[in-house]
Specification:
By secondary structure, this protein is an alpha/beta fold. It folds into two domains: 173 residues, Rossmann fold; 207 residues, 3-Layer(aba) Sandwich (Rossmann fold), CATH 3.40.50.10300. The protein has 13 helices and 21 strands. It has an eight-stranded mixed β-sheet, with helices on both faces. The protein has a five-stranded parallel β-sheet with strand order 2-1-3-4-5, with helices on both faces. The relative contact order is 0.09.
Length: 405
């Protein structure tokens, strides 16, 4: 189940060439079973027709503050009252100036003035317009009102220039929306998470690695950030996009990951090591490509540092340490052994042979083992699994997770 399921999103669209991107955003919201109602300014209609957004959202598009239809006479009040959040994307300089100045001269700005719900704005405009002192003053004022502004992107703009002012990516906006509907029960906690595989080079073109995708670790990082934590993610070589508002440190080898983790560990409240670190590495990386021979190839390997065991030895009082174990048999027994030997508070065991729980899939079914008991979770998305793991972490910290119903 998505955190956006059943949420009523009032989607304001203004007059920017980036308005066409709103169509895909609405599709994504509807796919996650959010209930979307669109409000368009007159300028927005010059770029995309209301019919497009009506078809995508499954609801009528609101456009005129003075609509004489009985159910729309008080639209600026009723729409804000009936929604869970107001998302304005793209948010032009003109629209932000209207809202910052308290103007209510069109339907969307009147809704924003009447709204007692979270307001999320996604600026999109030319770089010079964004950098202008008036726009920056309006952005600051909107933040003072308690509105949420998503950082605009940087890149090629419709005007032919390159710079700041691109409409933010949907991923960052989705994270901000999900965060609105989460209780910040991890607020004030600093967490360190590892994710993905490591690569141990054999020669300039070959390496030893494993099938870890990093998806579980990245889901843990996203979930923690939504719940208010300050998150550092140390990631091996994966193809995943950096989670918004998370410090991401990219590494390749086990030694590089160990150095990054051990340097930062002393300042952390919670450490979750979900990375699949290579147990061994070649004694030396050959400077030239190894050629094929008729006799085959023998490799001399040496053991890598056990990062989790070293964290268990170095852990500070009050620090909570969580490990992951990918097992193919004797899951609970192996988990309990590693829990004891590595001085952990919690270990998360998953079955690497399961078709829906192994590598590079979107779902997982794990067993949580602490020093007193074990609990097998149902098959869930990795996002939902991440939240259940954080719930358990909070309980082990002596706190109760808080869910926004």
């Amino acid at each position: 189940m998505s955190g956006l399921q059943g949420k009523r999103i009032l989607f304001g669209i203004t007059g920017s060439i980036a308005a066409y991107k709103a169509a895909q955003w609405i599709r994504e919201l509807v796919k996650e079973e959010a209930l979307v109602t669109v409000v368009m300014t007159a300028a927005a209609e010059r770029f995309v027709t209301p019919l497009t957004f009506a078809a995508l959202s499954g609801n009528a598009v609101h456009r005129d503050m003075f609509d004489e239809s009985p159910d729309r006479v008080m639209a600026h009040i009723n729409l804000a009252r009936e929604a869970d959040a107001l998302l304005i994307a793209p948010a032009t300089a003109q629209t932000m100036a209207r809202i910052a100045g308290g103007m209510a001269d069109n339907l969307l700005s009147a809704i924003a003035l009447a709204a007692r719900i979270p307001v999320v704005l996604c600026p999109a405009m030319n770089s010079a317009m964004l950098a202008h002192p008036a726009t920056q003053s309006n952005i600051n004022r909107l933040r003072q009102f308690g509105h949420h502004l998503v950082q605009s992107g940087c890149g090629a703009l419709a005007c032919g220039e390159t710079g700041d002012g691109r409409l933010p990516e949907w991923d960052a906006v989705r994270e901000r929306l999900l965060g609105l509907f989460q209780i910040n029960d991890l607020q004030g906690k600093k967490v360190l998470i590892t994710a993905g595989p490591t690569r141990e080079p054999l020669d300039p073109v070959r390496f030893l690695s494993n099938r870890s995708s990093g998806k579980m670790g990245f889901a843990l990082a996203r979930a923690a950030r939504r719940r208010g934590a300050e998150v550092t993610l140390v990631a091996g070589p994966v193809t995943l996009v950096d989670p918004p508002e998370v410090e991401v440190i990219r590494t390749t080898t086990a030694e590089a990951m160990a150095a990054a983790v051990l340097e930062r560990a002393p300042s952390m409240d919670v450490i979750i090591k979900s990375a699949a670190v290579a147990d061994f590495r070649p004694t030396a990386c050959q400077p030239q490509k190894i050629k094929k021979t008729q006799q085959g190839l023998s490799l001399d390997l040496i053991k890598n540092r056990d990062i989790l065991a070293e964290l268990g030895k170095r852990r500070l009082p009050g620090q909570l340490l969580v490990g992951f174990a990918a097992e193919s048999q004797n899951h609970v027994a192996e988990g309990q052994r590693k829990l004891r030997e590595k001085n952990l508070d919690l270990i998360v065991v998953n079955d690497i042979l399961g078709q829906q729980t192994g590598f590079d899939v979107e779902t997982n079914q794990v067993t949580l083992i602490d020093r007193k008991a074990s609990q097998t979770l149902p098959l869930l998305t990795k996002e939902a699994t991440a939240d259940r793991i954080w719930d358990k972490v909070l309980l082990l910290c002596g706190e109760s997770p808080v869910h926004d119903e």
